[in-house]
Amino acid sequence: MKSISLYIDNGSWLCRMHPFTKLAYIAAAISVPLLAGRLWLFAVFIALSLAVLASGHLLKRVVPLVAFSFTILITIFLIHGLFNQQNRDILFSIGPLHFYREGLLYALHIGCNVLNMLLSFAILVLSTKPSELVEELEKRGFSRRMGYIIISVFQIVPQMMGTMNTITDAQRSRGMETEGSLATRAKAFLPLISPVVMSSLINTRERAVALEVRGFAAKQKKTYLADRTPRRGDKPITIVLLALIVLAVIWRIVQCL
Amino acid sequence: MPVIAVENLKYRYPHAEALALDGLNFTVEKGEFIGIVGENGAGKSTLSQALIGLVPQFYKGAYGGKVLIDGRPADTTPIAELCCKVGLVFQNPFNQLSGAKDNVYEEVAFGMQNLGVPREEMHRRVENALKMLDIWQFRDRNPFDLSGGQMQRVAIASILVMEPDIMVLDEPTSQLDPQGSEEVFRTVDKLARSGITILMIEQKIEKIAAYCDRILLLHQGHQIAYDTPQKIFSRPDLEELGVRAPAFTRICRALGATLPDGSYPVTVEEAADRLQRTDALPPPAAPVPSRPVLFEIQDLTFSYNPGTQVLHGINLCLDARPTAIIGQNGAGKTTLVKLLKGLLRAEGGSIRFRGEDIAGKTVAALAAQVGYVFQNPDDQIFRYNVLDEVMFGPLNIGMDEAQAKEKSRAALAMTGLADKETSNPYDLELYERKMVAIASVLAMDPDVLILDEPTIAQDVRGRQCIAGIVRTLSEQGKLVLAILHDMDFVAECFDRVIVMAQGQVAADGTPRQVFADAEALQAARLDPPHVTQLCTRLGYEGVFLTVEEFLTACGCKE
C-alpha cells in the first residue's frame, strides 16, 4: 500500500529527535524573524533549516517541495517588482519591463517568509512519523478522538485508493471500458464511484463497532507501546529555541518603547 | 455461577419486522468451548454481538430478556467495560483493523493501549500471540496489505492479547487454508483448556464437532437445541434446519454404527472405532471425455515487487473440465487467475486463450469470454435493484435490452435469487450479495467462469446452489475454474484439481489422484476430504471422495 505520509525512516538523528523539539523549532524559525522584522534573520534560519536537513540526509527530498514553491514565488516577484503601489526607484529593466526596488524588496520579504516556513515544516514532516507526533500530543492531553481521526486519514486514504483499483478491476471484468474518450470515462464514473462511497459508509460503521470492541472508549489511562524517552539533546535545544522567541519578543517591545 | 447466562433473549433490529433472536435460554460455564451452528440468517452473528452488548447498545432496536456476563447485564454495562471481559472476533477481518496503525505489531497492541496495559507486558503478549498464530514474520507489514487469511490471524491475535475471559469468534477460519484452520482450532482449544470460555460460530462442521463441548443450534432466531455434538448431529431433522451433519456422522448413520447411548459418532476417531473395514473399493476411474483446450499457459512468471517472485514458471493446459485450484494462503492462486483474466500482465512466459495470446487484449475485450467473480461483492455493486445490477455486464458486452434481461433472469434463477429481482442489493445479506455478484457474471454468458473462494459465508444451501452452477456450466461445455479451501466441496464437484504451493504447481490430476498424493498435499499444507481421512484410518485402499460414493460402495444408500 502506498503511503501518503512523506515520512521515511532513514535512521538519521533527525528522525530520532522528539517531535516536540521539531515543533519548537518551527515556532522559533517562524516567529523570531517576524518579530525582529530583519531580513537577514530569515536568511539565518533558512540556512539553519537547510543545514539541519542536510545533516539528516533529507536535502534531496526537500528539492521538489522548494521547486514547487518557486513557481509561485516567481510570480510574486514579477507582480510586485512590476506593479507594487509603492514602486518608485527602478532597479533594473529588461526591455520594456521596469523592475522597481520597493516591490522587489516586498516580494523578497514574502519569498523569504514562505521559504522559511516551508523548510522548517519540512524538517518536521519529512522526519516525523505522523502517528508518533499524535501519540505525543495525546500524552499531553490532546483529544484521543481527534488523534484517531488524524491518524486514520493516513491509513484510510491509501486503503480507499486500493479499493478504487479493485473496483476498477471488477467493473472492467464486467466489460466496462474505463479508458478512451471523455464520454467513455464519464459513463464509467458512476459504476466506479458508487461502490467506493457505499463500501466506505459500511466500513465506517463496522470500524466504529471494531473500535468499541477494542476498548477505544475505555476510561482507563492509556498506555503506549513505543518508548520515547527524550534524548539528551532534546531538552537543551528546546530551551534555546524558546529562549530565542522570548528574546525576540523582548527586543520587539524595547523597540516600540 | 455460569460465566454467561442468557435468559429468554429476544431482539429485533430497528426497521425490521421479524425477530432476529427469539427466546434464547442457555448458560455457559467457565472454560467451556461452545459451537454455534445454524443456516444463514439463523441469528448467529446477532447473538455474538448481543454477548458483548453491541446489541442493543450500538444497534438499538427492541430488546427483551437478559444476557448476564459474570452476573452483569450486557445490555446496560458500557461496551468499554465489557470488552475487558468479552472479546469478539468479527466475520470480516478487514473491518476489525483499527485503521490507525501502519504495522501488524502495533495493530495487535492497539486494544491493550486503550486498556492501559503496561508497556513491557504489551510487548510480551504481542510477541506470544503473533508467534502462536504464525504471523510473527509479518509483524512489520502494513495490516491492509495482508491477504485475507493473514488478516484473519491478525484479527484473532488482536483480541487474544486483550486477554478476555470469554472469546466469541464469528467464523474465524473462513479464509484460512485447511491446515491453517486446524491450527486456529488447536490454539483456541488450548485457550479453552487454560480457562478461557470460547463461543465459536463456524460452518466447518467436522471441526466444530471435534472440538466443541456443546453446540447451540439456531434456526430463524429460535434456539432449537443446546447439547453435545453427538446429540445435536444425531438429530433426524438437521437437513431441514439447513445444517449438515459431519461426514463421519452421515456414514455411521447410514451404516447403523451407534455410540453406547444411541447417538452417532461425530469425529473421525469415534467413527473409526465403530466401523469395520469392508472390502468395498472406490469406483473405477471414469474415462475422461476429451474437452476443447481453452487456456495454454507456458513458463508463466510474475512478481508484484521486483525480487520477490510470486509465480515461478507455471505450465498448464486448461480444458473445459470443472477445475479447482487449491493450496495454502499466499501460494499464488489469486495471482494466477488474475493473469488469466488479464487483470495482471505476465512478466515472463505466455498465456494463450483459444490459441490467441492475451497479452494484446484489454480486460473489457476479454470480458465476454472470461468471467471473473471477485471475492468481495461490495467492490462492484452500484445499482439500486438486483436486476439492473446483473444486467450491467450483459449490456456492456453488447447484448440488447431484451436479451440482457433474459440472461439476467436466468442467472438469478440459477443463483436462487429469482424473487429478489427488485430488491436493493444493499438490503441483502452478505451471502445473497455474493450470489448477486456471481449472477452478474453468469448473465454475461462467458465461456470461462472464474470463482475466487465462492463458498465463503455460504451455508449448506448456498454450497448446493454453487455446486449446481458448476454442474450446469460444465454440461454446457464451459470451464469453471474455482479457488477453494473446502476440500469436501472440491471432491464433490470438480473433475480436475490443481495443487499450488509456493508459486508452483505441486500436483495436477483428478481429485482421486491428487488426494492420494500425500506428499503434494503436505507441501501445500492441505488435508484430504473427510471421507478420505476416515477411509485411510480404516485401512481402505484407494481414495473415496464423497460420503455418497463410500456408501454406494458399501452397498447402502444414505
Topology, element by element:
The complex is a heterodimer of chains A (257) and B (558).
Chain A: H1 13-16, H2 19-36, H3 39-55, H4 59-83, E1 90-94, E2 97-100, H5 101-127, H6 130-139, H7 144-173, H8 182-213, H9 234-256
Antiparallel strand pairs in A: 1-2
Helix pairs in contact in A: 2-3, 2-5, 2-9, 3-5, 4-5, 6-7, 7-8
Chain B: E1 4-12, E2 21-28, E3 33-37, H1 44-51, H2 54-57, E4 62-69, E5 72-73, H3 79-82, E6 86-89, H4 104-115, H5 119-132, H6 148-160, E7 166-170, H7 178-193, E8 197-201, H8 205-211, E9 214-219, E10 222-227, H9 229-233, H10 247-255, H11 268-274, E11 293-305, E12 308-319, E13 323-327, H12 333-341, E14 348-353, E15 356-357, H13 363-366, E16 370-373, H14 386-396, H15 401-414, H16 430-442, E17 448-452, H17 460-475, E18 479-483, H18 487-493, E19 496-501, E20 504-509, H19 511-516, H20 518-523, H21 530-538, H22 547-553
Parallel strand pairs in B: 3-8, 3-9, 6-7, 7-8, 13-18, 13-19, 16-17, 17-18
Antiparallel strand pairs in B: 1-2, 1-4, 4-5, 9-10, 11-12, 11-14, 14-15, 19-20
Helix pairs in contact in B: 4-5, 4-6, 11-21, 14-15, 14-16, 15-16
Outline the structure in words.
- The complex is a heterodimer of chains A (257) and B (558).
- Chain A is built from 9 helices and 2 strands.
- With 257 residues, chain A is mainly α.
- Chain A has 2 domains: 13-135 and 229-256, no CATH class; 143-213, no CATH class.
- Chain A has a two-stranded antiparallel sheet.
- In chain A, a hairpin with a 2-residue loop joins strand 1 and strand 2 (97-100).
- In chain A, helix 6 (130-139) runs antiparallel to helix 7.
- The longest helix of chain A is centred in the last third of the chain and has 32 residues, at 182-213.
- Chain A is flat, with a radius of gyration of 25 Å.
- The model of chain A has no long low-confidence stretch (mean pLDDT 89).
- Chain B is α/β, with parallel strands linked by helices.
- Chain B folds into 3 domains: 4-237, 3-Layer(aba) Sandwich (Rossmann fold), CATH 3.40.50.300; 245-275 and 529-558, no CATH class; 293-528, Rossmann fold, CATH 3.40.50.
- In chain B, a hairpin with a 2-residue loop joins strand 19 (496-501) and strand 20.
- Chain B is globular and about 70 Å long.
- The longest helix of chain B is centred in the N-terminal third of the chain and has 16 residues, at 178-193.
- The interface between A and B is large, with 55 and 68 residues.
